[in-house]
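Morning!

This is the sequence you dropped in the shared folder:
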Amino acid sequence: MKSAPERRVALQHLASDIHDCEQCPRLVEWTRHVAIEKRAAYREETYWGRPVSGFGDPAARIVVLGLAPGAHGANRTGRVFTGDRSGEWLYRAMHKAGLASQPTSEHRDDGLRLTNAWVTVAVRCAPPANKPAPEERTRCAPFLQRELTLLARARVIVCLGAFALQAAAELLAISPRPKFAHGAVIEVGNYVLVCSYHPSQQNTFTGTLTEPMLDAVFAEAVRLAK
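The structure's back. Tokens below.
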């Protein structure tokens, strides 16, 4: 097993490999297109426009797994779940659970620090219509495998949405594939998967996911990680 300093260096190398990845032409073209066209509200900003790596505490016992970077969130800011409404909900809940140093995540250098938690995504590029193709998911999977291997203390994976659960199930070779349900807790090997609806606007605006529901998921994750 790697020492803590060795894991930090290896995670930095992984991040570099992710940032430089161009395996999926459709996603490369889309992320760059969005970075050039931009959203009117961010017209004066320089978009990241590249694959996005995970971030957090290398000694984390809790891994938060999402789908992919938001086109005008992480694809703009360069940090996962940063700069959009999904991130607002996520980090507010993590702050309440004692996992984040502040309840907001606006840009890469805003001072946010995670304790006992690591946040990542199954697909590293923002996909058109937020729907990566099966072959794109497959090409990205080795990054998540490397990441989880390096996060040697991780025991709880919070799966944000059915796509994240599917990615975790494939990574951990769970068969038959577990059915997604908000609040579901699935034990597999050395890990426990805790499922939550994704904090997307589609779910938060409709009330499918409420703040108390998301808070309860993270409270359970913290409890299970002890």
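Headline: The chain has one domain: 4-225.

More detail when I'm at my desk.
O.
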